[in-house]
Amino acid sequence: MEQVAEAPLRAAAPARTRSETIAFLIMAAILIIAPFFTYPLFLMQVMCFALFACAFNLLIGYVGLLSFGHALYFGWASYVCAHAAKVWGLTPELAIIAGTLTAAGLGLIAGLLAIRRQGIYFAMITLALAQMMYFFALQAKFTGGEDGIQGVPRGKLFGVFDLGHTMTMYVVVLVIFLGCFLLIHRIINSPFGEVLKAIRENEARAISLGYKTDRYKLMAFVLSATLAGTAGATKAIVLQIASLTDVNWPMSGEVVLMTLVGGLGTIFGPVIGAFVILTMQYKLAPVGEWVLVIQGVIFVACVLLFRRGIVGELARIFKIKL
Amino acid sequence: MFEIFGIPSQALFGQLLIGLINGSFYALLSLGLAVIFGMLNIINFAHGAQYMLAAFAAYILLTTLDIGYWPALIIAPLIVGAFGMVLERTMLQWLYKLDHLYGLLLTFGLALIIEGTARNFYGSAGLPYRVPDSLQGGQNLGFMFLPNYRAWVIVASMIVCFGTWFMIERTRLGAYLRAATENPTLVRAFGINVPRMITLTYGFGVALAALAGVMAAPIYNVSPQMGSELIIVVFAVVVIGGMGSILGAIITGFGLGVIEGLTKVFFPEASSTVIFVIMAIVLLVRPSGLFGRRI
After folding, report:
1. With an 8 Å Cβ cutoff, are B117 and A293 in contact?
2. In chain A, what residues touch B279 (CB-CB under 8 Å)?
3. Is B112 on the interface with A (CB under 8 A)?
């Protein structure tokens, strides 16, 4: 993914942290004000998918690994969270933690297998493993098969705050989203993150410098899966449903599309991408199956003409880091 | 009627036959993927969609123009192969200098476009395609009943697979192809038009998928999602076999089809996941694949 990554990195010079801080404050401010102007439920969904895309971007954008099976972590976390909240009667924060840990475990297993191959094979392996777990979800009793797990109770956060109130739920999702976003930002700019970028640029060189790159790749993979799990689990509480759609391969494709549209390897790209794609899906819902065609066209257009994505292009034009 | 391991022979051989049929399609599709990957360094995600497109082409030829199975077996791969060459000239050729992953993303987008368009016009339900009259009926082999059409699919795909292997490994054209895979610049210096060869290779790989699509039409129903379901399994097959070897792709394809069929007899719950499980085991034991070169 060198072609994408180089541009934002070169523009990194002095304005780097300032532009990111300003952009972060603008994003936070918009997310605080927005629920008074548009549907909070839609915004919460956007934040869940934005977090999902940010987690995915951690792998493709900063380690150069294309996972085509991220629906696995998103969907299974969502199932476990929904099951924990509905059947076990856990409070929402514990249910979300249960979902997140499930995703971490699955990420560890899938990661151990997938990092044994590179590039194109890595993408095919992650896709195949995700499809395998899709079949498990289809057959397992607790997932409810075609119906999914419906009517998941939102419950009371810490047993105190009733998440049935939309605005309370909104604040919780906002805190989770911003918290995880800052965490990802921290990871990327930590010494660990620098090693990841080194692996992306030149793995052989990183190895010769003494880094155990497989371990770094595995750790990045698990982190990405875990955060994708947090997104899926939160989504299950917000929309009160976990279904097969969340574990199936089109979902994996969707998160790739969101990240690609926003800009691979940019911190804010996946957020913008998630917003754009979800908005498009809502606006185009009446045209039915054409949504699939339009998504395909966007994929093709992005790859052929627009490889930096929206945020990547903005960063290039204004010579800042986003 | 007799029993093997407590399973009636009829059921055992029946599933074995289905396994061989599925294996034929795995082999044809993974062969196409391997040929394309060798020349273009692109994993053709649209492979499944092109397979589906050919099944629809055969269906449309039959229902609107009254063109039957045998002509369709030639015409549909030609149409879809030509369509593939147009895609290569207009889109794929701009990606060769970029990371391999962009090829995957682009062809994934193409797959969505093709599948979405098919769903818009034909819905998600399967459309039946009749077995041609000349292959109706079947043979009673004593231990099982062998439908003629299924026997034809297995024999035909084996011939096509080994024909492809022969062409690539044993003819002059194949030698050019292999040389261009190793070092395109040098082959160009010898006066061979490599870009045209790449286009034709892509067309050929796509035509192989299309041939599989037409052969599949009378066995499975013709439906828009028939390709995307298959292609993910074929990816696993390719990971197991490794794309370095043509013969490897063929053997892995048939072999995994048979294993999948046997799983259906002895442990039906695992039949949809067995190939993925094998993939996981192969990755642990032999990460570069059974026939793959170390990368």
Report:
1. yes
2. 125, 128-129
3. yes
The rounded distance, in Å, linking the Cα atoms of B76 and B53 is 9
C-alpha distances (whole Å) from B179 to each of A162, B10, B34, B175 are 68, 48, 15, 6
Catalogue all structural domains in chain B, each as residue range(s) with its CATH number: 3-285 (1.10.3470)
* DSSP class per residue in A120-174: HHHHHHHHHHHHHHHHHHHH-TTTTGGG-EE-----EETTTEETTSHHHHHHHHH
Domain ranges of chain A: 14-248
Q: What is the chain B residue with the closest CA to A114?
A: B283
Q: Which residue has the tokens 């050019």?
A: B176
Chain A partners within 8 Å of B117 (Cβ): 293
A286 close to B (CB below 8 A) = no
Chain A partners of B233 at a C-beta cutoff of 8 Å? Answer: 128, 131
The answer to whether the CB atoms of A293 and B295 lie below 8 A apart is no
Cβ separation A304–B106 shorter than 8 A: yes
Which SS3 state, helix, strand or coil, does residue B222 take?
Answer: strand
Q: Which residues, in sequence order, are CB contacts of A81 under 8 Å at separation 6+?
A: A95, A96, A98, A99, A152, A232, A233, A234, A236, A237, A242
CA A287, CA B120: separation in Å to the nearest integer?
Answer: 10
Element (H, E) at B155: helix B148-170
> Which residue, among A176, A306, A316, A196, has the nearest Cα to A237 in the 3D structure?
A176
β A161-162/B138-140 pair status: unpaired
Q: Do A128 and B106 touch (CB under 8 A)?
A: no
The ipTM value here is: 0.87
Taking the Cβ of residue B43 and every Cβ of chain A, the question of whether any pair is shorter than 8 Å is answered with: yes
Tens of pLDDT along chain A (322 residues)? 444 444 444 444 444 578 888 899 999 999 999 888 889 999 999 999 999 999 999 999 999 999 999 999 999 999 999 999 989 988 899 999 999 999 999 999 999 999 988 888 899 889 999 999 999 998 888 888 888 898 888 887 887 788 788 888 999 999 999 999 999 999 999 999 999 999 999 999 999 999 999 999 999 999 999 999 999 999 999 999 999 999 999 999 999 999 999 999 899 999 999 999 999 988 888 887 788 899 999 999 999 998 899 999 888 888 887 7
